[in-house]
Backbone:
């Protein structure tokens, strides 16, 4: 028996931002529309069709279950983006799981409790026979299986033809005040503990480069970031100055190398974005990087800068060709509707033609 659907809702703590969950949720929304769904976004904060304040991270106002039920009432299928994955608002997770019991729901797990030390004592995500669990890496899929929860991995996907041209490189560097002959290391992340900003700065120092951190401090990291910057032995650019074009493609175009020094990432979008934008990547020790690298990427290591320095002195574009080809083959945004369509079909669901 199949069930016909017309409306899909995307639910998250926050949407519309530059964080990985928001970025991937927007891609899923577009893919669902491609499949024929009307989509609805619901979040506790940010930019969404409906804002339910008690749904936010650490919300001070209690969640009104009736308000959440009303927000999701039009939805035939609900995609839950991390709300039931990380205990950042346990009351919201309980209310959402109760509301969706027995109803077609996809839990899209970007993170899991035991992957963050402060949440390691929390239980696994809730489950239900009517639901499907989707992880963004095989590591999480295996860890859920150890806890008797079956899941499917759908890697984050990317527009492989999104890079900017030489004009964007020149104009962005000019706006940043970075001379043409200066090496520019881009860390396109937020500033929080696990992003290891000090590791990114250390790499830039050893390359004799300018360091550019794209995102701002969060989770009380302000003082630590101030300390890292004040002790840096290289020029540091924080954020995007007002005169600099904000396109992420322009940011990648402006840099010479991308650094992702994180100790933990659920996925690490810059790992693939660097390939899309044809920039060398220096990567840190986060476990999922090893899983992604097995697809065939050629990356440098942050703790061994000499090979990267030599490559920058005499770039071998075959490395960039290889990385771009791997991204196109395994992480292509064009493939996302097909992958989601297969998952939805396995749930016994079809999109209504009405």
Residues:
């Amino acid at each position: 028996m199949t069930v016909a659907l017309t409306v899909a809702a995307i639910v998250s703590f926050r949407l519309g931002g530059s964080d990985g969950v928001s970025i991937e949720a927007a891609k899923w929304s577009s893919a669902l529309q491609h499949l024929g769904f009307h989509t609805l976004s619901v979040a506790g904060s940010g930019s969404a069709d409906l804002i339910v304040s008690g749904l936010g991270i650490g919300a001070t106002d209690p969640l009104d279950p009736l308000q959440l039920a009303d927000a999701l009432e039009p939805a035939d299928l609900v995609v839950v983006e991390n709300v039931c994955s990380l205990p950042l608002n346990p009351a919201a997770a309980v209310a959402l799981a109760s509301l969706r019991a027995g109803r077609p729901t996809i839990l899209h797990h970007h993170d899991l409790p035991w992957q963050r030390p402060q949440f390691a004592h929390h239980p696994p995500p809730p489950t239900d026979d009517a639901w499907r669990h989707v992880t963004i890496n095989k590591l999480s899929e295996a860890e859920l299986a150890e806890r008797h929860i079956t899941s499917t991995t759908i890697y984050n996907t990317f527009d492989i033809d999104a890079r900017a041209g030489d004009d964007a490189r020149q104009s962005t560097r000019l706006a940043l005040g970075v001379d043409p002959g200066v090496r520019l290391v881009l860390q396109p992340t937020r500033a929080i503990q696990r992003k290891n900003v000090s590791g990114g700065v250390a790499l830039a120092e050893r390359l004799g480069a300018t360091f550019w951190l794209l995102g701002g401090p969060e989770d009380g990291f302000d003082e630590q970031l101030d300390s890292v910057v004040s002790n840096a032995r290289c020029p540091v650019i924080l954020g995007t100055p007002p005169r600099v074009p904000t396109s992420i493609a322009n940011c990648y175009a402006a840099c010479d190398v991308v650094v992702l020094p994180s100790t933990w990432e659920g996925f690490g979008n810059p790992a693939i974005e660097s390939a899309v934008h044809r920039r060398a990547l220096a990567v840190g020790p986060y476990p999922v990087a090893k899983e992604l690298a097995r697809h065939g990427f050629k990356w440098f290591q942050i703790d061994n800068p000499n090979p990267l320095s030599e490559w920058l002195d005499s770039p071998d574009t075959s490395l960039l060709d290889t990385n771009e080809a791997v991204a196109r083959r395994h992480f292509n945004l064009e493939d996302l509707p097909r992958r989601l369509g297969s998952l939805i079909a396995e749930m016994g669901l079809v999109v209504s033609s009405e």
The mean pLDDT is 94. The first helix runs from residue 20 to 35.
